[in-house]
Amino acid sequence: MTARLVVCASGEGSNFAALVEAARAGRLPATITGLITNRAQALAVQKAERFGIPVRVLRPKAFGSVEEWDRAMVAAVQELGADWIVLAGFLALIGPRVLAAYPGRVVNSHPALLPHFGGAGMYGDRVHQAVLAAGETETGITVHTIDHEYDRGEILAQTQVPVYASDSVATLAERVKAREREFYPQVLARLISGGAG
Ligand code: GRF
Prior knowledge:
The protein is α/β, with parallel strands linked by helices and about 200 residues long. Helix content is about 35%, strand content about 20%. The protein has a seven-stranded mixed beta sheet with strand order 3-2-1-4-5-6-7, with helices on one face. Strand 4, helix 4 and strand 5 form a beta-alpha-beta unit. Helix 1 packs parallel to helix 6 and helix 5 crosses helix 6. The longest helix is centred in the C-terminal third of the chain and has 24 residues. The protein binds 5-O-phosphono-beta-D-ribofuranosylamine. The site of 5-O-phosphono-beta-D-ribofuranosylamine has 16 residues, from helix 1, strand 5 and helix 6.
C-alpha cells in the first residue's frame, strides 16, 4: 500500500526534495500529496512548484490564535489527504489538534543525536554550533515521532555522523544534511511499511 505524506517545511527544503525523489524513484512507498509551510518565501515552496506538488502557506501570525492555526493545520492536512505528517525543517510548533488527529503519525528528523542537542530553540545551525562548542567527535540524525514538546516523542532511528576537528558549522551541517537526505527516506520507508524504525 502506498502511504500519502504531507511534508511541512520552512526552509531550503532539501529533505523535502529528497523525500519526493525517493518516492518517485520507488525507494519510498509513498506519494507526497502536499507541502505545508509557514513561510511563503521558503525555497521549499519553489521546489514544490517545480515538482508540481500543491503548497499551502499557513502563517501562525495570520490566525487570531494558536488554536485557530492548529485547526487550520488539521483542515489542510486532511484536505491534502495525509496519512502521515512528515516534518522537514518545519519551524512552527505542531498543535494538539494535529497531534490528536495523527497520533504517532507526525514524524520529524532532528540533525543531532537526541536527547542531546535538542529542545526549544535548537534548530538549524544552532544545533551544529552547539555540537562543535561541546567538542563532540560524533553527531548524527534522529528520526522521531512528535509529542507535545519540541524534539520529544519516540525515537524511531538514529545514525551517526563524524565531527572533524577542522569542521565549521557549514561543513558539519552539509555532512549531516547529506546523510539525512538518504537516512530520512529509508526510515520512513520502513515505518510506513509497518516495520520498526
Ligand atoms: C534539516 O537538517 C532537519 O534535520 C532540520 O532542519 C534542516 C532542514 O533542512 N530539522 P532542509 O530545509 O530540508 O534543507
